[in-house]
Amino acid sequence: MAKIKFDDDGIGHYIKDNFLKVPVYQRAFAWEISNVQDLFEDIKDSYPEDYFIGTIVVNMKGDYLEIVDGQQRIATISLFFVAVRNLLLRNKMEENAKALENDFLQKTSYRGDLKQKIKLNNVDNNFYVEKILTNRNIELDKESHKRILKSYEFIERFVDNWFKNGGIEDIYNLVAFIEKKLRVIIVTVSDEVNAFTVFETLNDRGLALSQTDLIKNYLFNKADDRLGEAQDKWLRVTGAIEAAENEDEILQYIRYYWSSKNGLTREKQLFKNIKDKIRDKNQAITLLTNLDVNTQLYLAILNPNHLHWKDYSPNCVEYISALRELKLTQNRPLLLAILERFERREVEKILKLIVSWSVRNLITGAIGTGTLEKEVSNQAKLINEDKIKNTLRLKKSIENIVPTDEQFKKSFEIASVSKNYIARYYLTEIEKSYRGTSELGPIQNPEKVNLEHILPVNPSNLNDWPGFNEEIHKTYYKRIGNLTLLDKKMNSREGNSNFNVKREVYKDSEVFITGSLKECKQWTTKEINKRQKEFAEKAIKIWSLEI
Fold first, then answer.
1. Residue 441: left (phi > 0), alpha (psi -120 to 50), or beta?
2. Separation of alpha carbons 115 and 35, rounded Å
3. What are the residues whose beta carbons fall under 8 Å from the beta carbon of 92, sequence distance 6 or more?
4. DSSP reduced 3-state for 126
């Protein structure tokens, strides 16, 4: 039977008496400066009285104890001991510094070998040793490394201020406080599976853990004698996503994948739903295997330059770029299902439709974000259940929520756009339509071309704009018909001038929809409405529902 032991100890003393390591499957150092500040504010406020900072769960693993829960606190306290050691060295107290290092940081054997008291995971440990322990120059190539360095710099300032206020004796007293009076409950378990159960139970009783950590530990628990396999798969998934995006994207991927198989699942429901459905080791391994297999598909959805797209037509890259540019995420469960289940020739047709559906909904506001995500997740589920097998059936299945041409046109004719990146996308696509080509060269580059409000956001003198008062200006300045694309230098030079001045600038623009403004004698609501109606006619064809 697995054994569980509970101990009460000072965190410094516990580090002094043991060798600890963060296992490879645990996430990298995640504490932000605010977390470190909170801990050291608590230390400052409670000193010199005993202060409890929580529970640590460890698993006996050879000559090291593996930290199942508590790595952020232990790593942060380790940074404190480094800061104190370095303070002693700066004050020519080498023997004292060596003694502290031997107790809390790295122990020197009689052979002269060094053994770390605390080893971080494989992502962070080399940086911790090279940059923090030995102060060598090393590249900050991970977000967790930046967090470690910022945390150390904060703690170093804390220690220096403590020294300035009370001298070396107060530093020794602070070290003794961290060693003996900064208290933790140590839960030591004899096997990993039991450790994961304790970890989850602690969360149920009020300790705040991330959904990602809970899911990981639950799946590891269920994996039983296939734990090593589960850990390998988890590492491949999280490593690939962290390398390409960031650690926050891991949870999003799991949620979108789960929604594609089971229907819409909100973030706060995800862990519970996985617990309810994954009941044994085979189900846990199957889920992890599927997540592993589909990771690159998810990364391809996020990145139009992903290698996955090399065998697809350039149009697919353009459609994925559009979804990324519009910052649309609700469709990701559907995209995962399509890429996993549909043949390549069907993917291009569906991506085109998804972009058209998305734009039509943005313009009309026909359904809310939550309803849209629910609907696309349900469609994804139907695809995964083999109830929808091609583009035509998917189009038929979802047509009840897609705005018709007439609805789209009427909404487009009066639409205003508050978000510049969305307006830029609309105008770029309309410009392509006028030119009859998708090749726009430098004018597509956001660094060279600005979004321009013809009727300015803040006109120098509203009287220079006939027919506009404050109320009409507020109604019209964000209208699509009042927006265009313009060289940044031109834009900054004449941004708030009257129309006659701006028209002289527009006539030299390479952008068709901007250069054509030279034909307008004045700029009133009539011109804005007329131009927007022309754009609406283009929009029906650009974001058509034909396949």
1. left
2. 28
3. none
4. helix
Nearest-5° Cα angle at 475, 364 to 506 = 95
**Angle between the N-to-C axes of helices 369-384 and 248-262, in degrees from 0 to 180, rounded to the nearest 10:** 60
CB-based burial, 462-494: b 16+ in 10 Å, e otherwise: eeebeebeeeebeebbbbbbbbbbbbeebbeeb
What amino acid is encoded at 75 in this protein? A
User: Pairing relation of β-strands 114-116 and 118-119?
Assistant: unpaired
The beta-carbon contacts of 89-92 under 8 Å, at least 24 apart in sequence, are 91/168
Paired strand residues for 486: 450
Query: Per the omega criterion (within 30 degrees of 0), is the bond before 446 cis?
Result: no
CA distances from 435 to 181, 193, 511 (A): 73, 63, 9
Whether the CA torsion 208, 213, 215, 219 is positive or negative: it is negative
Distance separating alpha carbons of residues 282 and 280, to the nearest angstrom: 6
Do 143 and 246 meet the contact criterion of CB atoms below 8 Å apart? yes
- Cis before 442 (ω within 30): no
Rounded Cα gap, residues 190 and 197, in angstroms: 12
Structure tokens at 223: 């994996």
CA 417 to chain CA mean position, Å: 25
List of residues 6+ apart from 179 with CB closer than 8 A:
10, 11, 12, 13, 16
Cα–Cα distance measured from residue 18 to residue 379, given in angstroms and rounded to the nearest whole number: 53
Q: Does the predicted model carry a pTM greater than 0.70?
A: yes
What integer pLDDT is reported at residue 542 of this predicted model?
96
Helix, strand, or coil (residue 23): coil
Residue in the block written with tokens 């963060």? 22
Q: Tokens for 159?
A: 């220690």
Q: How many helices (H) and strands (E) does the chain have?
A: 24, 10
pLDDT at 195: 66
Q: Which residues pair with 61 in a beta bridge?
A: 64
pLDDT of residue 208: 44
480: closest CA among 544, 406, 538, 426? 426
Q: What does pLDDT average to in each consecutive run of 10 residues of the chain (547 residues)? A: 81 96 84 94 95 90 87 96 97 96 90 89 92 90 91 97 96 97 91 66 53 86 90 91 84 96 92 93 96 97 95 94 94 96 93 95 86 92 95 92 94 95 94 78 65 89 88 94 85 70 88 92 94 96 93
- End-to-end, the C-alpha distance of the chain in Å comes to 62
Residue from 296, 339, 332, 294 nearest 316 by CA: 339
Q: On the CB side of 247, how many CA atoms lie within 13 Å of its CA?
A: 15
Note the pLDDT of residue 447: 64
Ordered strands of the 51-61 beta sheet: 4-10, 182-189, 51-61, 64-69, 20-21, 118-119
